[in-house]
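User: My advisor, Dr. K., asked me to get a structural model of this assembly before our group meeting. I'm new to this, so sorry if the format is off. These are the inputs:
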Amino acid sequence: MALKIVKGSIDRMFDKNLQDLVRGIRNHKEDEAKYISTCIDEIKQELKQDNIAVKANAVCKLTYLQMLGYDVSWAAFNIVEVMSSSKFTYKRIGYLAASQCFHENTDVIMLTTNQIRKDLSSPNQYDTGVALTGLSCFVTPDLARDLANDIMTLMSHTKPYIRKKAVLIMYKVFLKYPESLRPAFPRLKEKLEDPDPGVQSAAVNVICELARRNPKNYLSLAPLFFKLMTSSTNNWVLIKIIKLFGALTPLEPRLGKKLIEPLTNLIHSTSAMSLLYECVNTVIAGQYSCSVGRIKSHLLCVQKLRILIEDSDQNLKYLGLLAMSKILKTHPKSVQSHKDLILQCLDDKDESIRLRALDLLYGMVSKKNLMEIVKKLMIHVDKAEGTTYRDELLTKIIDICSQSNYQYITNFEWYISILVELTRLEGTRHGHLIASQMLDVAIRVKAIRVFAVAQMATLLDNAHLLTGNMQRNGICEVLYAAAWICGEFSEHLENPVQTLEAMLRPKVATLPGHIQAVYVQNAAKLFATILKNQEGNTDSTAAQETSQMMIDRLPLFVQSANLEVQERASCILQLVKYIQKLQQKDVEVAEEVSALFAGELNPVAPKAQKKVPVPEGLDLDAWINEPPSESESEDEQPKAIFTKEEPKHSRPRHTEVDEKELARRREARKQEQANNPFYIKASPSSQKVYQEAPGVEHIPVVQIDLSVPLKVPGLPMSDQYVKLEEERRQKERAEKKKKEKKKRKEKRSGRGKKHDSGPESEEDITPAHVVDIVTEEMPEVAQEDQNHLPSPYLCRVKICICMFCLCRPLADSEKLPVRSHRAAGAPKSPAEDGEAENATPQEPKKKSSKEKRDKKKDKERDRKVRLRCWKHLPPSGHKSDSRSTPSEGRTAARRQLRRCNLMTQCFTFLVFPFSRKVCDIQGNLQDGSQVVVSVIFENKSDSFLKSMEFNVLDSLNSKLQRPEGSGPHDGLTVPFQLPPGVSNEARFVFTVQSIVMPQKLKGTLTFIVKNEDSSTHEKLDFKLHFTCTSYLITTPCYSDAFAKLLESGDLKSSSVRLEGVNMPFHHLLARICFHHHFSVVERINSCASMYSRSIQGHHVCLLVKTTVSIDAKCDEPTLLGNVLDEIKQTFSQC
Amino acid sequence: MIKAILIFNNHGKPRLSKFYEHYNEDTEQQIIRETFHLVSKRDENVCNFLEGGMLIGGSDYKLIYRHYATLYFVFCVDSSESELGILDLIQVFVETLDKCFENVCELDLIFHVDKVHNILAEMVMGGMVLETNMNEIITQVDAQNKMEKSETFIFQSTRQDR
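Assistant: The format is fine. Below is the predicted structure of the whole assembly, which you can bring to the meeting.
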């Protein structure tokens, strides 16, 4: 009976299951969206039911809809409900749905922690399995932290099925909760030798992923992996291990040596191409430090790669080329010998393969074959369909031609014509690249200027062909170069007037602003040249005609919307008008006009700026304004944990904006402008302005179809150069032969046959015309030092997995938090602060905050950054009749230190675990305005620190004393270097004017961190706290002198009460002596008089009573106030 | 790491999508569309590797795909995975599907996407390869299905799938 009811209700509610939904969607092709929206309504109804079966069914359907792109996050809570069903069927549906649509920001994830923990410990292995699988997709830092321990337990589960899943998921846990890595690592290592191959493979997998992020930490595992590699037969595991070795060998050369034998064996023996390929890859990776013994294995690799490339399987071909490009970096020669093969691949029908082959071309070219290769590429450019591939070709052509200072170009006329040919590419976005090449060549190769100018003049003349592509915004950049070259080297122009006319056509006004600006400026240069030419003639009308043309055409530019164009045009227009006036008076102006543009512009080397010495007194590192406080960002820091630290060097990708998108944006912009009260609307009154400054999109531009190969009159085809060059070379060769024959005849030796038939060698090819490559200008001062150091950079280190040393024994605080309801299980806080944190059981919410705090502390410890500034009593001259125990002093100092750490929060996460600084500020009695700061530098890192420079940003009151002749912002060199673990002391003298106020000085310590293989510049920011106390000097005083002093009446008095101090009176006095540099004058029962003197001779007298109040007198009230404040602060910290 | 596994048909209709990194639904659809666009224009006998997906990853990522009859199986992976290894994995995946569905065809994937997910979960977990042995995968999938059947036996009798 009950069953029947259940059946009935199910029949009613199960009106649609997943299959029905899919079928329905397929049957409603026309109105799919509408159908789905009714389905979603139904699902919402189903989710309201109490029956879990109905809910599960609904969630199952939602998972499908999610795949189709529907947002189902609104059902997140229902998904959690289904996940927590006791039935495996529903649980699986729930976890699947969660894995598809949960993510870090899904708030209901918080609710799942306990459910997941329950499932993980379920007696049914598939419950556990499903939970692990689901968790792997949506694990959050919180979940990772809470569940890390449970998962660790599962790593030693009896069932291998669970073990392997648990091992694998640990990687995700590490990612989200890096602190778990150290405690979990030993067990993970154990799993490498698990009897089950699946678990073993999972462990290898995890370690490989970890090692990819920081290989160094896993070097110690190399022997274990080596053993695995020689024993395992599982190709998957082998591939992973070999890949791991590929990452390790660059760090440890000996490993590479050791690997060669087993790897070559594998290469010879394996039938699996995947394994062979990885072996080859790793051998290549190990060859950064190639010794003679490895040449054999290297040859083997290249051989094997050739076989791969020659294979008919396109996949192998692709991979072969990929590996070749890695060899190219280290052994370009051995790749060059396979040039034939690679050039062949350029013709492959597969774009992936062509792209790989293109990459290889870079190392392939020589003087001899450059033209041939480029010619081939040009054919591809013509044939290429997709713009991406064509653009890739274009950049490659320019890359290989311009590499190492145009090393391989023998004929620059050819190169210029190649560039000109490339301008005919439709829709490329590399116009600026071509333009910069044109400029570079024209400027630096003097001999080519005549030719280049002629070419550019034709380009300008045919500009309309290029501007057809205007809206694609690419190629018209070339006109920038063309105009500049024609203007700058106008003396080479054949028909300057015609070019000038071309540059002042009305159509020019449709070009982008920066190009127009160049047009205008260079029109002026041209004008100057023309005047010069024409004034030589007797006919002055020609010159006046030119001026008239300028005056007629320039107003168009004066009205330009672009400020730069407007400014230049109106400037030049006035100039020309003035010239015209002079011309009408028959004054010769050409000389003066051309003087405007006299002198040659030389290229400046990119590094030139660096070579210019920084003028004295200019500190580039000093802040102009106070830097914004960075302390807030610290909280966000852990979020970025090591996903971002990987260097991202993806190729810059431009997204092409399609027409629709443009239209949409335009519409949006108009809308915005309409709503913006500050925007001048296109009302009738402002129409004129609008016309003068038309938006680019309003200009009707006729699209010129360039699909028919264009033969622009006057433009040479680069092909002819190839032929010419060939002829020239042949001629040269013939001549050479002749000469050699002569020589041989003279010498009559029989051995010189080599040169006869063999191919000409590189050196034999002489450039067509002697090319004088203008070297770039460098500032003279720096000319001689060519070995420039890597520029100093600031390294912002984030705490991340990489920084944990896995060999170090676990500290108590690092143990994973175990959730338990017994007090004993709660994590102990680090004991160093002496703060007893009671380990009472806490509710999860409270606990998380506490854990966070703990975490922070741990992090700080790991970073080991301890830059400390503390002040304590000067060692000698201190006399006190009460004992101050050293340990007490130390704890107090530590407290002080904690405060300083807080104060300097901004730098504690800026720096490496490098150095520790302790400093002691002490006044100098001899000179009332000097304070000596001794700083103890301790190197706590494993690296060598050198070239330390100490610098403080002076304030008006306090200045760091610097040696004679150095500027006020120069740093002081610390006169020693620090090997790891060593500490040393340095003293710095400060000049202080007024000592009545405490001060904080900001400073930086720069130093070079030297490792075995690298050295980096680092910077440490710190603050020096000059308290008023530090200006006081313990001076003994006799009671009669003290009494006289008090009687003199010069002293102002003040008093303070110390609240909540309950310590023995002599301790209290000792403390004041210790921290504040006082000496006790007299002690009578319940009160004591104390005295101290400042470096500028102020007397400070105290009367301390056992009621813990202090009456004080001093001749400087401000100083006294501050000293009392400081005393109060010292005691408020007890 | 595997970043995403996509199955779609010759017309770009998604049949299964599994992202191991979170994207919102719109981006997911865009990735599927873009991937389809890239993959579908390639000839039959060219290599199975593809670079240049803009949405997923960056230069480090590759698309590795196989085309079976009406379906494309696409894995988006980074450089820590062996290219040929992943191709083999796709093969294992398809063979497993074939065993589990008895002569798998597109329709099976259309109507039983949840089952495909369950099979995939035994092979790849959180973007990492869990198991490559087909028999092991099938054993585990079968065991779970059996469990499911024993639980839902009572409901199965009232209603037939398909």
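One thing worth pointing out at the meeting: The first strand of chain B starts at residue 2 and ends at 9.

User: Perfect, thanks a lot.
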